[in-house]
Amino acid sequence: MSYIEELVGLLGSERVTTNPTVLEHHSHDESYHTPHLPEVVVFPQTAEEVSKIMKFANEKRIAVTPFGMGSSLEGHVIPYKGGISMDFSLMNQVLEVRPQDFLVRVQPGVTRMQLNKELKKHGLFFSVDPGADATVGGMAATNASGTTSVRYGVMRDNVRDLEVVLADGRIIRTGSMTAKSSSGYHLTGLFVGSEGTLGAFTELTLRVYGIPEATMAARASFPTVQDAVNTVVDILSAGIPVARIELVDERSIRQVNLFKETDYPESPTLFIEFHGSEQSLQHDIEFAQGIAGEHGCTQFLFETDSKARAQLWDARHNMAYAFVHKSPGKKMMVTDVCVPFSELADAIVNAREAIDRSGLDGAILGHVGDGNYHVILMIDLNDKDEVARADKLNAHLVEYALQRGGTCTGEHGVGIGKMKYQRKEHGAALDVMQSFKQVLDPNGILNPGKIFG
Questions:
Q1: Per-residue pLDDT tens digits for 38-69
Q2: Whole-model pTM?
Q3: Could you tell me which of 207, 199, 132 has the C-alpha nearest to residue 172?
Q4: Domains of the chain by range and CATH?
Q5: Could you tell me the CA-to-CA distances from 287 to 219, 282, 292, 301, 386 in Å, in that order?
Q6: 249, 268 in Cβ contact below 8 A?
Q7: How many Å separate Cα 2 from the centre of its chain?
Q8: Tens digits of residue pLDDT in 155-208
Q9: Which of 134, 227, 320, 440 has the most beta carbons within 10 angstroms of its beta carbon?
């Protein structure tokens, strides 16, 4: 009997499949990395079923790759060792909302939009917003962040507790529901960002927030990228409590106008959002507008209407898709570096110069409120010269960031795309990470080939 037949015995034939279309769907994410088919896809519904699958796979030395929505950008869910792709789409329940504790318990297959729809009934929202409607399990696995991290923090800041199934099938909990604890090692922080290499998440307890009384969004245009970045630095230095502050360069704005049929000025632009009371927001907006004016701001518009705000942020969130849909035959490469805030302005100027030298069509955008920025490149994977130039540009951006105390990835994660930079970034600490991996997954079945190679 093949191991796939044994899996059918564990879950039933309706939740174990080798259907070619399903295998293909689980062979890739949204990145440019080469796809690879799993041998089988399984759909567990409980932690106990995940435990059974893990025990079985560990005994048989079969690779297991967790799969959420497939929206990752560094090849995290590509099963390069074949084996089992474990799809969590059937574990998609919001288990408990605790409004007085500002907590929610969810299964890993719950998506960000699904969660916020449920939380809205309680006057709450989950803050981490990477743009894509990713699963919260996948967001925790990559330590996702996004547009709101400048105010509310990244995924690691908002996960209180995890239920994790280890490679040998043990089910553990890593934290608690309390706001703080000094008891033992911080296992939650270890597992968040581990990309499925240490265990599979089957439940998450997340921190949530009250929906603010008022929200305002602003769009500010500038003559140069440096003017825009200097404005960000001064706004944050002044202590203005912005909820989001995003940079989009002129090339990105041009693409949005083409894709969305908008008419935004094609110049470096900041998208800003403020959360608070009506009275405080008016002061914050005026203060921010004054700072922007000092840096040559050519247009400063703000919106309080929810529909207008949504349209404004829709332009930002659809940036990547604007490039994808208007670049037939090409794949998107998105770089993802983060630098100390004091290095941000020079880093973005350097990135623009590097793009221009490369001869590639590239755009810069990012969550500049926390030093994280991206370069979007659309490349023809069949053009070896173009691929080589893109790789060289990506390497330059990473090296620049590392030399200035930054990191090779601010939010997308390591996957396979950033493995080659791990030793340079972490030094001997990478050996410590590998020792954790060896202890928790001695047979190397969990998402093999990721982070460590």
A1: 999 999 999 999 999 999 999 999 999 999 99
A2: 0.93
A3: 199
A4: 94-210 (3.30.465.10), 214-321 (3.30.70.2190), 329-414 (3.30.70.2740)
A5: 14, 9, 9, 14, 45
A6: yes
A7: 37
A8: 999 999 999 999 999 999 999 999 999 999 999 999 999 999 999 999 999 999
A9: 134
